[in-house]
Write a structure and sequence with these properties.
Blueprint lengths: L2 H13 L2 H8 L3 H15 L4 E4 L2 E4 L1 H30 L2 E6 L8 H11 L4 E6 L2 H10 L4 E6 L7 E9 L1 E6 L19 E4 L5 H12 L5 E5 L3 H9 L4 E5 H4 L5 E4 L7 E8 L6 H12 L1 H4 L11
Parallel strand pairs: 3-4, 3-5, 8-9, 8-10
Antiparallel strand pairs: 1-2, 5-12, 6-12, 7-10, 7-11
Keywords: DNA-binding, Transcription, Transcription regulation
Family: Belongs to the LysR transcriptional regulatory family.
InterPro entries: HTH-type_LysR_regulators (IPR050950), LysR_HTH_N (IPR000847), LysR_subst-bd (IPR005119), WH-like_DNA-bd_sf (IPR036388), WH_DNA-bd_sf (IPR036390)
Length: 303
């Protein structure tokens, strides 16, 4: 018994006429007659009462029709759901940290999508800590994070670059003409920083405490652009990643001795479920690692 036989049977019932059913199905009348007889043989009972100029369903045929229609509806629903599942499996949920990734992620996304236009990247921007949480709960498939320490053994990762956080002022600021090497030299300069729940801010405040000084933070914002604009307007100073700080000639930036280089890593939960798009992205990261430098760490070894 095949789905095609059931479809032929339901169509014949619709018209109660073999010729009209054959015309709708674009097959010959002998072909549909043969299919119905084979179905009756397999069922073990007659589906139709045949008269010279008409056919009508038997009682058993009517019961069989209800079951056949139910099965065909279920099959169509399964086909529709399978398509939706396939579409879901072409979507990758990627989280990105707002500071330090702008020199890497746009090129990474462009190159990947150029090679795999059937895959969609759904991008979420958040703090590194929040991205790790979303990776742990399965809300994200991958996250591009910036941190001093590399991920622990619960994650697989590829290091795709490095980022240096710079202290930035406007070129008209009194500090612009000085040689700033330490947090102590910032003094009470007004600062705009990312909120306290960002790992970057936690890291900087720890460094301030270790330097025995208190930062004069006048505003917290989750928007890197807001920090950038305050510095451009000479309304405050701030900390920007090197790739952002070097973009504007009105900014003067300083590499402070207390601030270490950070690693930019694409992470994934070690035992997270996989599907074809995930495997494709991992293969891309592996094959592209030369772009990120021969000395970069690669721990995304198993899908």
């Amino acid at each position: 018994m095949t789905l095609q036989q059931l479809q032929y049977f339901v169509t014949v019932c619709k018209y109660q006429n073999l010729t009209k059913a054959a015309r709708e199905l674009s097959i010959s009348q002998p072909g549909i007659s043969t299919s119905i007889r084979e179905l009756e043989t397999e069922c073990g009972f007659a589906l139709f009462e045949r008269r010279p100029n008409s056919i009508t369903l038997t009682d058993q045929g009517e019961n069989f029709l209800r079951e056949a229609e139910h099965l065909l509806r279920a099959y169509q629903k399964l086909k529709k759901n399978s398509k939706l599942i396939a579409e879901e499996n072409t979507i990758l949920r990627v989280g990105v940290a707002p500071m330090g990734t702008s020199a890497v992620f746009p090129r990474l996304r462009k190159d990947f999508l150029a090679a795999h236009p059937n895959i969609t990247l759904e991008v979420t921007e958040n703090s590194t800590e929040s991205l790790y949480q979303k990776i742990d709960t399965g809300e994200l498939d991958f996250a591009l994070c910036v941190s001093i320490a590399l991920p622990d053994e619960n994650y697989r990762y590829v290091t795709v670059g490095h980022s240096r956080l710079l202290f930035c002022v406007n070129q008209k600021s009194p500090l612009a003409c000085e040689e700033i090497h330490s947090l102590r030299q910032i003094g009470q300069m007004p600062l705009v920083m990312l909120p306290d729940y960002y790992s970057q801010t936690k890291y900087l405040k720890r460094l301030f405490r270790e330097a025995d000084c208190t930062p004069n933070v006048i505003q917290y914002t989750s928007q890197v652009f807001t920090i950038f604009q305050h510095i451009r307007e000479n309304a405050a100073a701030g900390f920007l990643s090197e790739d952002i700080a070097r973009q504007d000639k009105e900014l003067v930036s300083f590499a402070l001795q207390e601030i270490e280089n950070a690693s930019i890593t694409m992470i994934r939960k070690k035992d997270a479920k996989t599907f074809p798009a995930v495997e494709t992205f991992i293969h891309y990261l592996r094959s592209s690692k030369k772009k990120w430098g021969e000395n970069n760490s690669v721990q995304l070894l198993n899908v």
